[in-house]
Design brief:
Layout (H helix, E strand, L loop, with lengths): L6 E7 L9 E7 L2 E7 L12 H12 L8 E3 L8 E3 L2 H19 L4 E5 L6 H4 L2 H9 L3 E3 L6 H11 L15 E5 L3 H4 L3 H10 L3 E5 L12 E3 L6 H14 L5 H7 E2 L1 H8 L4 H8 L3 H13 L3 E5 L9 H14 L9 E3 L10 H5 L10 E3 L3 H4 L11 E5 L3 H4 L3 H8 L5 E6 L11 E4 L8 E3 L6 E5 L12 H11 L11 H8 L21 E2 L23 E2 L3 H7 L15 E4 L22 E4 L1 H6 L7 E6 L2 E9 L7 E3 L36 E7 L1
Parallel strand pairs: 6-15, 7-14, 8-9, 8-12, 9-10, 11-21, 12-13, 15-16, 16-17, 22-26, 23-25
Antiparallel strand pairs: 1-2, 2-3, 4-5, 4-17, 18-19, 19-20, 22-27, 24-25, 24-27
Helix pairs in contact: 5-13, 8-11, 8-13
Length: about 675
C-alpha cells in the first residue's frame, strides 16, 4: 500500500490588491497547494485570512483556467482559439509585434497596459518598468483607475507622512468607518473595532449601504452616494458653531484654516440634510459624539473617491480630526498610508533614470479612447496587458472591448489564468503565481514589511514576471546589467537596507516567518504630530492646497453634483468572492451576479426577489439576479464588481454601464459611482 505523500506547511504572503497584505501558511503536497491558511507571522493579520483566499487559491493555481504554456492566437480576436507554442516562438512574436510598431511609428507607439495585480515589489513593478522605460514606450498614469484620488487627497493634507497604523484603533474611543466595507476589503480592522467597543468606545459607520459592520455599530449614517464632502464640511461648520475646534492645535499644526472654513460655512444644516438624505437628529448625534471623544480615529475606504466630488469628500473628511486636535496621541488620527513608513526605493527598483525626457503619459482611464485614436501624432499600435484584467475592471467596458478588438493593434498578454482580457491577445506568456517566486511585500494599509519565497515550483512552463522581462530584454538586445539583476538583487534594490528597522539585514534575507514593524525613529508607534511630522510643503496639515488650486481649481473641497438622467444610481462595491477581478474564473463566481434593490423600488416595478432583471443605460445592458433588501437606500442599486463576461447573458458586466468621461474633481480619477441606470424584467 502506497504511503500518503507528506503535507508541508510553508510561509508565504498574500499579494492581492488589498490593504491588509496577510501573512500565509500554505499547505503543499506533491508540489501542489492543497490549502491556504493564515499565519501569525504578521501581528496585524494574526492568523486570519479572508474566505476568498482560503477557498479559491488552490483552484486558481491548479484549475482548468491556469495558463501553463505560451499560446498563439489562431482564431478571430476574442474567440479564445489558441495553440501552444514554445517560449522562443512567443518571445519572437512579441519582438516582431513591438518592432513593427516601433519601426513604423516610433517607440511611443508601444504601451504597457498594467495596473495592480500582484502587490509584491518585484512582480508589481521592477524589470518590466526597466524594459519599457529603456524602450522609450509611452508612459501610463495608473492611479486614476483606483486609489490615486485617495492617495492624492491624503498627500494634499498630510504630505508623504505615514498615517495612523490600524492596530492603534484599540486606543480610540470613537472611530468613524467612512466608505470602507471593512469585513469585505479591510478584514483585520473588524476585530480591532470589536475590542475598541468592548472597552466602551463608539463606532460610527458612514456608508450608503447597511454593510455588515454597520450591523454592529453605534450609529449608521446612510448618506446618499457622493455627498461625503457635504457631510464633512457641514460637520466642520457645526463644530465651529459649538466652539469645539481646538484652536491651540490649529494654531500650531494647521494652515489654510480661514479659506477652508469660509467654504465649510456654506454647508448649513438644511443643505446637509437635503443633499445627504439624513435627518437633522442624526447629524447632531454624530457631532455630539465627535465633541465628546477623547481619541477619535477615522478609517476611510476607496468608496468615497469614486464620485465626481470624491477627492473633495476625502479631503474634507480627513481634515476633521485636525480641526478637533485629534492627532498627537495613540488612537487619534487618520487610518491611512501607514505603509508609507516602509523605506521603499522604487525609483531605483523601477529604473526611473531610464525614462526618456519628453515621453508622453496617458491616463489609464482614457485607454479605450487612446487605443482607437488614429489622430494621435504617434498612435498606439502595440501593447502588453499584464498584472491587469482591464476588460473586467475598466469603465465603459464595451468601448474598451471595441478598442482591443482592433486587428491593427498587436496585443501581447501575460497572466496566471486565462481571463477576458487574455482572450483578446495575439500571444500569451504564462505567468507564475506569487507562490512560485521570491518577492518582498510592503503594504498600503498597514506598517509591516514581509518577504516570501516559492512554496511550489513554477507550474508548467510559467515564469515569474521578472524572468519574463529579463528574457524579453535579452530578445531586444538590452544587455545592460540592469536587465540581468537576479530576484535577490531586485529585492535589495526595492528597500533601503540602511533603514534602522532592518537592523542590518539585507532585504533579500529578511526571515520568511516574521514581519518587520515600521515604527518612528525612536522605536515608538507612528503618531502624527508627535514622532511623525506632516510632510507637506509648509510642514503643517494643509487645509488649503496650492497645488490643487493651480491644477484643478480646488484649493478647498466643494460639492459638485452630476446630473442624474435615469432613476437609479448603481454602486459597484468589493465582492466577498473576488479581490477586484481575481478569482473571477472560480466556479463560485460563475453564473449570474446579484444586484440589490430596496423593497419600495422593487414593489413599484412589480419585481420580486430572485427575478432575473436587466440593468441598462445608453452604454449597455447587463443581466443580474435581483436581491430585494432594505440594506440599500431607495434609488440606489448595489452589485459587486469584478465579474467576468460569462456571468451575464449580454456578454457584458456592470462595468459596461459605468461612464469613462466623468472624472473626479482631483487627479482625473474614474467615477465608478456616477453610474445612472434603469431596470426592467428580463
Amino acid at each position: 500500500m502506497n504511503k500518503p505523500l507528506e503535507i508541508h506547511s510553508l510561509p508565504s504572503v498574500c499579494p492581492l490588491d488589498c490593504p491588509d497584505t496577510c501573512s500565509l501558511k500554505v499547505q503543499v503536497q506533491d508540489d501542489t497547494v492543497v490549502a491556504v491558511k493564515g499565519s501569525k507571522a504578521n501581528p496585524y493579520t494574526d492568523g486570519v485570512i479572508c474566505n476568498k483566499v482560503a477557498r479559491y487559491y488552490p483552484e486558481f493555481l491548479h484549475g482548468k483556467a491556469r495558463l501553463t504554456h505560451p499560446l498563439k492566437r489562431v482564431g478571430p480576436r476574442g474567440s479564445g482559439q489558441f495553440e501552444q507554442i514554445s517560449w522562443d516562438a512567443a518571445l519572437d512574436m512579441v519582438h516582431a509585434g513591438f518592432t513593427q510598431a516601433i519601426d513604423t511609428h516610433g517607440p511611443q507607439s508601444v504601451l504597457p497596459f498594467n495596473y495592480a495585480g500582484p502587490h509584491g515589489e518585484l512582480a508589481a513593478g521592477s524589470m518590466d518598468r526597466r524594459f519599457f522605460y529603456h524602450m522609450g514606450a509611452s508612459l501610463l498614469n495608473r492611479g486614476p483607475l483606483c486609489g490615486g484620488v485617495r492617495g492624492g487627497a491624503y498627500a494634499s493634507v498630510f504630505g508623504n507622512a505615514p498615517g495612523m497604523p490600524p492596530m492603534q484603533v484599540v486606543h480610540s474611543d470613537l472611530v468613524l468607518v467612512w466608505g470602507n466595507n471593512v469585513t469585505v476589503s479591510n478584514l483585520h480592522l473588524a476585530p480591532l473595532l470589536k475590542q475598541m467597543r468592548a472597552r466602551g468606545g463608539k463606532l460610527v459607520v458612514i456608508d450608503p449601504k447597511r454593510i455588515k459592520i454597520a450591523e454592529q455599530c453605534d450609529m449608521h449614517l446612510q448618506i446618499k452616494p457622493g455627498t461625503d464632502v457635504v457631510l464633512a464640511m457641514g460637520l466642520a461648520a457645526e463644530l465651529e458653531r459649538r466652539a469645539a475646534l481646538d484652536k491651540g492645535f490649529i494654531d500650531q499644526w494647521v494652515t489654510g484654516f480661514a479659506p477652508y472654513m469660509a467654504q465649510a460655512r456654506l454647508y448649513d444644516l438644511a443643505t446637509v440634510t437635503a443633499l445627504c438624505g439624513i435627518a437633522a437628529e442624526e447629524f447632531h448625534a454624530l457631532a455630539d459624539l465627535m465633541v465628546s471623544a477623547k481619541s477619535m480615529a477615522c478609517a476611510f475606504g476607496n468608496g468615497i473617491e469614486r464620485g465626481r466630488s470624491g477627492g473633495s469628500g476625502l479631503r474634507a473628511a480627513m481634515v476633521l480630526p485636525a480641526l478637533l486636535g485629534q492627532h498627537g496621541r495613540l488612537g487619534a488620527g487618520v487610518l491611512a498610508k501607514s505603509g508609507v513608513a516602509t523605506p521603499k526605493t522604487q525609483a531605483r527598483l523601477h529604473g526611473d533614470h531610464l525614462i526618456k525626457p519628453g515621453t508622453r503619459c496617458f491616463n489609464i482611464v482614457d485607454l479605450a479612447a487612446v487605443l482607437q485614436d488614429d489622430s494621435l501624432e504617434t498612435p498606439i499600435k502595440a501593447t502588453m496587458i499584464y498584472n491587469h484584467n482591464p476588460v473586467a475592471t475598466h469603465p465603459d467596458q464595451a468601448n474598451l472591448i471595441k478598442a482591443l478588438m482592433r486587428e491593427d493593434l498587436f496585443i501581447a498578454g501575460c497572466d496566471v489564468v486565462m481571463t477576458d482580457s487574455m482572450a483578446m491577445c495575439d500571444v500569451i506568456l504564462p505567468a507564475a503565481s506569487h507562490f512560485e517566486f521570491d518577492d518582498i511585500y510592503g503594504a498600503y494599509g498597514q506598517n509591516y514589511l514581509q518577504r516570501a519565497a516559492p512554496v511550489i515550483p513554477c507550474v508548467g512552463e510559467s515564469l515569474p514576471n521578472t524572468e519574463i522581462f529579463r528574457r524579453l530584454a535579452a530578445r531586444f538586445g538590452y544587455d545592460d546589467a540592469l536587465f540581468q539583476a537576479s530576484d535577490a538583487q531586485l529585492m535589495d534594490e526595492a528597500i533601503d537596507a540602511d533603514h534602522p528597522q532592518l537592523a542590518g539585514q539585507r532585504p533579500s534575507q529578511i526571515p520568511l516567518d516574521s514581519a518587520i514593524e515600521m515604527t518612528a525613529a525612536n522605536g515608538e508607534s507612528l503618531i502624527l504630530c508627535h514622532n511623525v511630522m506632516p510632510a507637506t510643503p509648509s510642514g503643517t496639515i494643509e487645509l488649503f492646497s496650492e497645488a490643487y488650486q493651480t491644477r484643478y481649481g480646488y484649493g478647498v473641497p466643494r460639492y459638485e453634483p452630476v446630473m442624474q438622467d435615469l432613476p437609479f444610481t448603481l454602486i459597484t462595491p468589493s465582492s466577498s468572492k473576488r479581490t477586484n477581478a481575481t478569482f473571477g474564473s472560480d466556479p463560485a463566481s460563475q453564473g449570474m451576479e446579484e444586484v440589490e434593490m430596496h423593497p419600495a423600488d422593487a414593489n413599484a416595478r412589480n419585481l420580486n426577489n430572485g427575478d432575473t432583471i436587466t440593468v441598462h443605460n445608453a452604454r449597455g445592458a447587463v443581466t443580474l439576479r435581483l436581491k430585494v433588501s432594505d440594506a440599500t437606500r431607495p434609488g440606489v442599486l448595489y452589485s459587486p464588481k469584478g465579474t467576468w463576461r460569462a456571468s451575464s447573458d449580454t456578454g457584458l458586466t456592470v462595468n459596461a454601464l459605468i461612464p469613462a468621461n466623468i472624472r473626479t474633481d482631483i487627479e482625473d480619477g474614474a467615477c465608478y459611482h456616477e453610474t445612472f441606470v434603469d431596470v426592467k424584467s428580463a
